[in-house]
Give the backbone structure.
Amino acid sequence: MAAPKPQVQTVSRTFEILETIQELDGAGVSEIAERVDIGKSAVHNHLTTLANDEYVTKDGDEYHIGLSFLGLGAYARDRTSIYDTGQMQADKLADETGELVNLLVEKNGMGIYLYQAKGQNAVELDTHEGKRVRLHCTGLGKAILAFRSRAEIDEILDEHGLAKLTPHTITDHEALHAELETVREQRYAIDREERLHGLRCIAAPITDDSDRSIAAISVACPVHRVDDERFYEELPESVLGAANVIELEHNYS
């Protein structure tokens, strides 16, 4: 990853405030000031400016992200090269499996959900388009990491760490590298309740013509409803098929 560039502190603070509001699903001035570690009056000034342009809205004492970001987010998503093909295949995969299908890309060492498709039995999760997640604890993230160089993997892990989110999360560097080697061999990754209790996923990388990952697609399902036979024998083939179509259309169309 490139070395950090000089930042304009005011702009950086504004985005810290926005990210805090999003993370907390609404927040007041005092709560934001405590999280961002600046004075309440400064927070209020930022919020007033954002509210004037409808980038935040106020509901009682709480501020929320405004709809002005919707157009910007949709524009950024639509400009992502993998989106059009990925969306169509995600929808097909969700219809085929009846489960929740996710499309994820990597940016600055974090995963960003680019698109979600819900089959008739899809589980409701804390994820949404635009949400950022760590790569080491998701099937999607491991599928992306497995098709990057060792140096890039280590740089991402050194920057973002290996936070333990559940008892099943891999938190040892060498254990994760061993897992990624298995992913490379079988070309799909498994999330065994590593980010959320009771949820497991099958994910496949989407690679460019040099076999470097540019995205990943997954099927997520609850442990109690999807048995091992379907999870380990049926779903990998479906996910790999969707990833293959996306790769072909993205790389050669």
